[in-house]
Specification:
Elements lengths: L2 H22 L7 H16 L33 H28 L1 H13 L5 H8 L4 H30 L1
Helix pairs in contact: 1-2, 1-3, 2-3, 3-4
């Protein structure tokens, strides 16, 4: 998984918490599990995947889940207290940056957030087509198709320009 994909998961996990902050100007315990999972992803990025600018390309911990038990466990620490402080700071920075990005994104789409909140008050589950309508997005397949056709058009335009240049040079 790429750094971008892991961060996207963190953004999604923080979305509910940030929405609560924005709408209610308060937070509840409802997002506790999401916050725990986002923190675990950020910690894994830093300690296992070498995705920390300050610590560099180093894997400081092994997987935190035992082989046969679905319960996270603490692994033996194989680094100094100074490194532990850097790890904590890096994890906090990832979460702080993600929190800010999610806040900016939700603020930019506040009307969609409000519309979705109203729909969720009426019904417990929102299906993909309803969400896409609120967000005014097309299906992923249609978006990919459109992106491909735009890229092809740009490539053709580039060829047309180079053909024209070659004709004018001749």
């Amino acid at each position: 998984m790429t750094r971008s994909e892991l961060l996207a998961r963190v953004y999604v996990l923080l979305g509910g918490r940030v929405a609560e902050e924005m709408v209610f100007d308060d937070v509840s315990t409802g997002a506790q599990n999401d916050l725990q999972r986002a923190t675990e992803i950020a910690r894994t990025m830093v300690t296992q995947f070498g995705m920390s600018d300050r610590l560099g390309l180093v894997s400081l911990e092994g997987p935190r889940t035992p082989l046969f038990l679905p319960v996270p466990m603490q692994s033996a620490k194989e680094y100094s207290e100074d490194t532990a402080r850097v790890i904590d700071a890096e994890v906090k920075q990832i979460l702080t940056d993600a929190h800010e990005k999610v806040r900016e994104t939700l603020a930019a789409h506040r009307s969609a957030l409000e519309e979705l909140a109203q729909l969720l008050l009426k019904k417990e589950v929102v299906e993909r087509p309803e969400l896409q309508a609120i967000l005014k997005v097309v299906s992923i397949d249609r978006a990919k198709e459109k992106k491909k056709s735009l890229a092809a058009a740009e490539a053709n335009e580039g060829r047309d320009k180079s053909d024209s240049k070659m004709l004018s040079d001749a």
